[in-house]
Automatic annotation (TrEMBL):
The RecF protein is involved in DNA metabolism; it is required for DNA replication and normal SOS inducibility. RecF binds preferentially to single-stranded, linear DNA. It also seems to bind ATP. NCBIfam families: recf. Gene3D superfamilies: P-loop containing nucleotide triphosphate hydrolases (3.40.50.300), RecF/RecN/SMC, N-terminal domain (1.20.1050.90). Keywords: ATP-binding, Cytoplasm, DNA damage, DNA repair, DNA replication, DNA-binding, Nucleotide-binding, SOS response. GO terms for biological process: DNA replication; DNA synthesis involved in DNA repair; double-strand break repair; SOS response. Its main location: cytoplasm. The gene is recF. Residues 6-343 form the RecF/RecN/SMC N-terminal domain. This is DNA replication and repair protein RecF. It comes from candidate division WWE3 bacterium CG22_combo_CG10-13_8_21_14_all_39_12. SUPFAM superfamilies: P-loop containing nucleoside triphosphate hydrolases.
Length: 367
């Protein structure tokens, strides 16, 4: 098994760090510090290298140390490749080996799977959180998906602008909608395939994902076209979406935005329950907080497996305060998984990590 390994990290003016550098263990790295000491900021910096964006804010300004104008995070990989992200209030700059590059070419170098306490929103929050989860996973295993999603959002913006303009130009709508439909189909098929792959791995863990494309009538089309080939599926979805976009134009013009498409997809997270009418229950409605936390952890660990299968190398695992609220059985799941790749674990005190074997671990100081 090939694993990605970060050898060292240097931070400048990022979050609470003015200047910080450290070396890492190729296996297990443990950061124990009180809440507010900066341990989550350290994991966020590593996550920035793996995702190209902050998992905690969409506003670059918030990631820059107060009073400064530029933040920088730099890592040296075990392969001797140097990666860096420089952040200003308006833009991020990406560097490989000291040379600036674009986001798409930067992304394949490191992948991470990141658990943080507010990841419970993956099951308890709105659809945006689940779409983001799918899109980040797909972008990690296939950088082309980034382009597809970017093109779709650009075309969607153009269509929404036309709806708001009050002009009904059939030719212009068609010019926008034809490629919009093609990119939508790309995203729908990619998301549906990912959910299917995840379900194969999750079923033994008594978790089932249900992909809910927008509009939801497409769910039946996906099911009916299963096994008939992708071209057949694309033809079916193309005919349906083109007609649906035409049908909704008048209504959407009064609202100023599009009512259907991948930007409105969702994923339902279900747990197997023999006592439920159909053998499944929605974890958002019926699951306890502990069940929701375990479901998120299992989803993320399954994601790590899929990334490894797709890329041929194991992603780095970032676990922020992961052990709280877990019983012994699920703590054992984590202990089994952290040995598979380079792992970073934070905890607020020693009691949270008393079960860990420190023989192959390093303590990372942030003081």
């Amino acid at each position: 098994m090939i694993t990605m390994i970060i050898d060292s990290l240097t931070i400048k003016n990022f979050r609470s760090f003015d200047s910080y550098s450290t070396k890492f263990n190729p296996q297990l790295n443990i950061i124990v510090a009180p809440n507010g000491a900066g341990k989550s900021n350290l994991l966020e910096a590593i996550g920035l290298i793996g995702t190209g964006s902050s998992v905690r804010t969409s506003k670059s300004r918030e990631a820059i140390l107060w009073g400064e104008h530029v933040a920088r995070v730099e890592v040296l990989l075990e392969t001797a490749t140097k990666l860096a992200v420089s952040i200003t209030a308006s833009k991020k700059h990406f560097f490989v080996g000291g040379s600036e590059t674009n986001f798409r070419d930067f992304m394949p170098h490191v992948s991470v799977v990141y658990f943080q306490p507010h990841d419970l929103r993956l099951v308890s929050g709105g659809p945006h959180n689940r779409r983001l989860f799918l899109d980040r996973t797909l972008s990690t295993i296939n950088s082309t998906y980034l382009l597809v999603r970017g093109e779709y959002l650009k075309l969607l913006t153009q269509r929404n602008a036309l709806l708001k303009s009050g002009r009904y130009d059939e030719m212009l709508f068609t010019v926008i909608e034809d490629p919009l439909v093609e990119r939508a189909i790309d995203m729908i098929i990619a998301r549906n395939n990912l959910v299917s792959r995840m379900n194969t791995a999750l079923l033994p863990q008594e978790i089932v994902l249900e992909y809910l494309p927008s509009p939801q009538a497409m769910r039946e089309l996906l099911q009916e076209s299963a096994g008939k080939g992708e071209e057949n599926l694309r033809t079916t979805l193309r005919e349906y979406l083109r007609e649906k976009f035409r049908e909704l134009r008048e209504k959407e013009a009064t609202l100023g935005f599009s009512l259907i498409g991948p930007q409105r997809d969702d994923v339902k997270v279900l747990i197997i329950d023999p006592l439920a009418p159909d053998g499944l229950k929605d974890i958002l409605t019926f699951g306890s907080r502990g069940q929701q936390r375990v479901a998120v952890i299992r989803l993320l660990f399954t994601t790590a497996d899929i990334i490894e299968q797709s890329r041929g190398e194991r992603p780095i695992l970032l676990l922020d305060d992961v052990f709280s609220e877990l019983d012994a059985r699920n703590r054992e799941l984590i202990l089994h998984t952290i040995t598979k790749q380079q792992t970073f674990i934070t905890a607020p005190d020693e009691s949270e990590i008393s079960m860990l074997d420190f023989s192959d671990a390093s303590r990372i100081s942030i003081g």
